[in-house]
Amino acid sequence: MTAAMETLIQSLVNGVLTGSLYAMIGVGLTVIFGVMRIINLAHGEMVMLGMFSAYWSYTLWKIDSFLSAIVWVPLFFLAGMLAYRYLVRAIMPGGELNTLLYTAGMSLLIANVALFAWTGDYRTLNLPYAVEPLHPFGIAVPVPLAIAFGLAALITAALYVFLARTDTGRAVRATSQNPEAAALMGINVERIAMITFGLGTALAAAAGVLLVPSLYLYPTVGEILVVKCFVIVVLGGLGSIPGAIAGGILLGVIESFGAVYVSVAYKDTIGFIMFLLVLLFRPQGLFGAARS
To answer: How far is Cα of residue 174 from the mean position of the Cα atoms in its chain?
Structure first.
């Protein structure tokens, strides 16, 4: 294998591994938007809180960050339902602009409280088994990214089973397609909206738990993550879960190739340029259907 081919494959593998975690962030936002038509600007802060939860679990109690997902993901699901019940539901009748401004305010509040509580220092999580990468077929694969990729695939498969095979999941899909018809069929739309917001929050926290061994952690990291999230959902088509998965992986690959073949400094910029091009030439997204 030539050096150029090895570099190409290495960049592709890194992009797919990172993109799978981006996809989880995008899926959480897509699930919420699909049912409630809310663009949750505080979604990045949920990822950040998931990252800090895993970080402090390991730092204070020596609980492996990946294992801590067993505790934190259900807790964030409950927190998301409570946030919808007591914070979000009351402002939904005001329309999409009100919810957009409201969640933007929530984002700023959460980030600044985190900044006050934990300072703006950059932190890293150094797991003992993350020192040496794996080398399958001569390709270096960081152990945390490999584990995170496997867990992300498992969580995504569980989400698919939930949406496709359970009564509640079918009710979520029905509400997403037509809330009025779903209500006429006897579905409690309010309850489904609360469950959906909890599910989206839990997915964001899960992504944060999986990302924390691979990214720098600081209280305002949610700002860049929510921007990436919008890139993902625009690439995939807003409201499409398969599109969000494809968009996340595509963004990860684009960033990886950009870092190698252009410059690490312009890695994020390349993704945003593609975001603007998609908005300009295919606003329904690369994987979304055109709307009449």
So the answer is: 23
Tokens matching residue 113: 């409280």
| Domains parsed from the chain with CATH numbers | 3-281 (1.10.3470)
The DSSP bridge partners found for residue 134 are 141
Q: For 211-241, write each residue's pLDDT tens digit.
A: 999 889 999 999 888 888 888 888 887 778 8
Q: Is the pTM of this model over 0.90?
A: yes
Note the pLDDT of residue 292: 45
Composition of the chain by helix, strand, coil, percent to 5 = 75, 0, 20
Mean pLDDT along residues 236-254: 86
Q: Which amino acid is at 109?
A: L
Report yes or no: 109 and 179 within 8 Å, Cβ to Cβ. Answer: no
Q: How far, in Å, are 22, 31, 108 from residue 47 at the CA level? A: 11, 15, 14
Contact between 214 and 145 (Cβ < 8 Å): yes
Of residues 221 and 135, more confidently modeled: 221
The C-alpha angle with vertex 121 and arms to 115 and 127, in degrees rounded to 5, equals: 115
Does residue 208 contact residue 51 with C-beta atoms inside 8 Å? yes
Q: Find the angle CA(121)-CA(127)-CA(131) to the nearest 5 degrees.
A: 110
Cα 254–chain centre separation: 17
